[in-house]
Pirin (Lipomyces starkeyi NRRL Y-11557), 301 residues
Amino acid sequence: MSLSAIVKPRTISKLFVAIEQSEGVGARVRRSVGTARLRNFSPFLMLDHFFVSGKAGFPDHGHRGQETITYLLHGQVDHEDFTGSAGTIDEGDLQFMTAGRGIMHAEMPRPQKDGSAVTGLQLWVDLPEKLKGCEPRYRDLRKEEIPIVKPSDKVEIKVISGESYGVKSLQDLAYTPVWMIDATIKPGGFISQPLPEGWNAFAYVLEGDLLCGTTVAKQYNNIVFDRDGDGVEMSVPDNYEKNARIVIVAGQVLDQEVVQYGPFVAVSKEKIYEAVMDFQNMTNGFERARNWESKIAKMIR
């Protein structure tokens, strides 16, 4: 199948707006995956579009059993964990974090000199059961490492993970196979994006309005697709005044139960109980949390 032509576009199963809510310390998020409208859409557990201003953020907290993908749209975010890893992701960068058997970390957006909010997307992805006990790891993906393809003068696509118009991303960014495509479409522009057969997929509108087939999607809408086609088609009509920007995400479906308690994800209630006990007792993966406090979170204490 040509990567610039789709035999059969997928149909839309649902479209809804991500409602803004509080999260962390002083942060606001628009959550679309992980709500009553879309829960445990394997392998996806949560998608937050976050906005953080001033001294606020996501201080020391634990994870187990999943991966997180953080895509920074504006500003800088410092991160630090109990393994000794620390660093900063800048605008346009991503961080792929595998919690595995357990990690404690902090993610703190830097206050902007102009007072603007630090913004980005954070996607939680389930881990296959056989990998839930793996050691935690990080992979920062810098914007310079992300290939860009321009199928026309009205479309620019950042191939974060996966493939678009014959251009492939860097490989092995996450344990669970996930594609992520960031497309900006000008009025008069059109994209045809194939997706792997059988994978679940959705698209989140960051900016502007667009057409997905004949359906109008607006800013902060999440478009959820059925698995009945080869990919998706999107366009911005000539008479629209603004560009549209959309992130298309697809992931391999995991054949396993999903039991989640906050930042702990397992395949049974018993495993969740074990995760809570291990976190409280600082055992079986959380030993390094004992007496550990991040430096970066102290700025809001």
In short: The radius of gyration is 19 Å. Residues 269-281 form the longest helix (13 residues). The chain has one helix and 26 strands.
